[in-house]
Amino acid sequence: MSISRLSVSNLRNLCSVNLELAAGINLFIGKNGSGKTSLLESIYLLGLARSFRSAKLKPIINSHSQECTVFAELLTENNRKLPLGLKRSLSGELTIRYAGEKIRTVAKLAQLLPIQIINPDTFQLLEGGPKLRRQFLDWGVFHVEHHYVEHWRQAQKCIKQRNSLLRRDKISPTELKVWSEALANLANKIDQLRQYYIDQFIPVFNEIVSQLIELPMLSLTYYPGWDKKVDLLALLTSNLDKEQSQHRTLYGPHRADIKVKIDGQPAGEILSRGQLKLVTAALKIAQGFLFSKFTSQKSIYLIDDIAAELDNDKRNKLCQLIETMNCQAFITCVEDSSLNYEWTKDVKMFHVEHGQVRPYV
Ligand SMILES: Nc1ncnc2c1ncn2[C@@H]1O[C@H](COP(=O)(O)OP(=O)(O)OP(=O)(O)O)[C@@H](O)[C@H]1O
Ligand SMILES: [Mg+2]
After folding, report:
1. 235, 262, 289: which is the final residue of a domain?
2. Whose CA is nearest to atom 7 of ligand 1?
3. Pocket of ligand 1 contains residue 277 by CB under 6 Å
4. pLDDT tens, position by position, 169-186
5. Can you list the residues of the chain whose pLDDT is less than 70?
6. Together in a domain, 203 and 326
7. Going by CA atoms, what residue is nearest to atom 3 of ligand 1?
8. I need a surface site. Which of 242, 276, 295, 343 has the fewest CB within 10 A?
9. What sections of 251-311 are H helices per DSSP?
10. Which residues contact 238 (CB under 8 A, 6 or more apart)?
11. How far away, in angstroms, is 8 Cα from ligand 2 center?
């Protein structure tokens, strides 16, 4: 799936934008504050019904408007053109229509338009806490195995129930046992699916990183959320006192992590900004690659300020890698002089100025 046309109205400073897009690379060049990130935000909004910049609606909708809309014509793998539209209003109303039908769940939307974003926030994958890395992992697993989400939801419920029991002064051992057993059972299913995904992910990631940067001491490992040499149920039982004093479940899939290290040290604490950008880009590209492999669908890449933090050689390597992915990409850049890569595929360049987007001449 790719986006062949895009219309945006009243999203930040993009009052009325209408574009015919390339199925390959779409480059948006413009000065600071011109509307480049907002353009990527509009596509992200269309794919996930939320922004990557703000949890609130007000800042996204143009300050002189009550609602914003994003409309796209999607080109399917078998060359069908289907309309997808999204409207968000200040009152909180959200309407999504695809091919004449209302879409009621964001999960359905995410399946239609799978998006990978690479921007400064992506650094948080390495610099931030495990929650983001778990979300990253879960995105991948979910797209390989759709029933994963059901195990995950049930496990969340068990953890919630256990935590509420652990907060009580007096705990009913039978009640706790029911939730502990259910959690241990689900944890093993979740772990199996995550482990399978990671086993596929690691060689792809290593190969992609090596195309971008030389980091021989880089390693990526998966931590399931407890020491797997010990049975989770036994671990929960033997740590009851500790859990009671902390009022929460200390072991399980909700504590999982992907550990990216350089010579045994967390990569986020060691790498330079440019190195961080390349490693996080490799994580995203590897995820998109596996997504295509498992689903025969292609991700859409949103890459904000591609040139920032990178030297010329690394920029070119990143551009080349993106090109070889054969996906649709939306790339922003402040100045065209900072990106001298010679694209060989289908490319369209646009100039962004004061919220207007025009073909680049
Ligand atoms: N709700 C809003 N209504 C109107 N304008 C807004 C709103 N929110 C942000 N803006 C403005 O929209 C413009 C576009 O911002 P955007 O972040 O897309 O710029 P950019 O081209 O990515 O800039 P940079 O190169 O600095 O990252 C900015 O000038 C900003 O002040
Ligand atoms: Mg920007």
Report:
1. 262
2. 12
3. no
4. 888 889 999 999 999 999
5. none
6. no
7. 62
8. 242
9. 267-270, 273-295
10. none
11. 17
